[in-house]
Design goal:
Layout: H1 2-19, H2 25-28, H3 40-43, H4 50-68, E1 84-92, E2 95-100, E3 104-109, E4 113-114, E5 124-130, E6 133-138, H5 140-144, E7 161-167, E8 170-176, E9 178-186, H6 187-194, E10 205-211, E11 214-219, H7 221-232
Parallel strand pairs: 2-11, 6-8
Antiparallel strand pairs: 1-2, 1-9, 3-7, 4-5, 5-6, 7-8, 10-11
Subcellular location: Cytoplasm
Domain CheW-like: 84-230
Main location: cytoplasm
Length: 233
């Protein structure tokens, strides 16, 4: 589990760095602080306050401003000597998907998602409070064009999770129905999956492979992260 510990630490650093310019009054005088804010008498909770909503809007504005000053970044190449590649396996509805752990910051418990007025895109669900920091929350179902009505679960106890992904201009959160875990996949298996024919040509899909008796759709993280950036700007 050392890799997950490292991802957890990276997630804390990214989240704090991305929000350090925003006054997080909810952590000082709000419900997560000493509760001395005079507005609490009327709003009851910080998420109902216009100051909280304005901070969330400024966070999304920063995504757009940073994007204007950056050039598109190519996906990091994997060293030729690497024999395996790590994928996180998760479920959305009835479909199992895999994403490279190099673009994953953390797997976190499910948190409330606070919607915002004047949503910028259909994929933008709102913001989530991750350890006191506001992080944009996106729908992978919407981005990937999946069937939103499907919600079948595998056997046993199922616990929805949130994936914190390292997007180009800061972390974003995506809720998922279930996380299976991190798997080291033989590079030759991935190479074969990439050349598997028409299935691999679907948008955001780098390949399709069999793992643990399931058909796993391996996501193209470069295309996915590009779509994430567009949805925030």
């Amino acid at each position: 589990m050392n890799s997950l510990d490292a991802l957890h630490t990276a997630g804390r650093d990214l989240t704090l760095a991305d929000t350090q310019a925003i006054d997080d009054c909810w952590n000082r005088i709000g419900v997560h602080g000493d509760k001395s804010c005079p507005l609490l008498a009327d709003t009851i909770h910080c998420r109902n306050c216009s100051v909280y909503s304005a901070a969330a809007t400024r966070l999304l504005d920063r995504y757009a401003l940073q994007q204007d000053d950056r050039r598109p970044q190519a996906a990091t190449e994997v060293d030729n000597d690497v024999v395996t590649r790590s994928l996180l396996m998760f479920r959305l509805g009835e479909e199992w998907l895999g994403i490279a752990t190099r673009c994953l910051v953390e797997v976190a418990p499910l948190q409330p998602i606070h919607s915002l007025p004047h949503q910028r895109s259909r994929a933008l669900l709102g913001v989530a409070n991750v350890r006191g920091a506001l992080v944009a929350c996106l729908s992978l179902v919407e981005l990937l064009g999946l069937d939103a009505t499907s919600n079948s679960a595998s056997g046993g106890r199922v616990m929805p999770r949130m994936l914190i992904i390292a997007a180009q201009d800061g972390p974003v959160v995506v809720p998922v129905d279930e996380v299976d875990g991190i798997h080291a996949i033989d590079e030759r298996t991935l190479t074969a999956a990439s050349a598997s024919g028409s299935q691999a040509s679907a948008r955001f899909t780098q390949g399709v492979l069999q793992l643990k008796g399931r058909s796993l759709r391996w996501l193209d993280e470069a295309q996915l992260l590009s779509a994430v950036t567009r949805s925030l700007t």
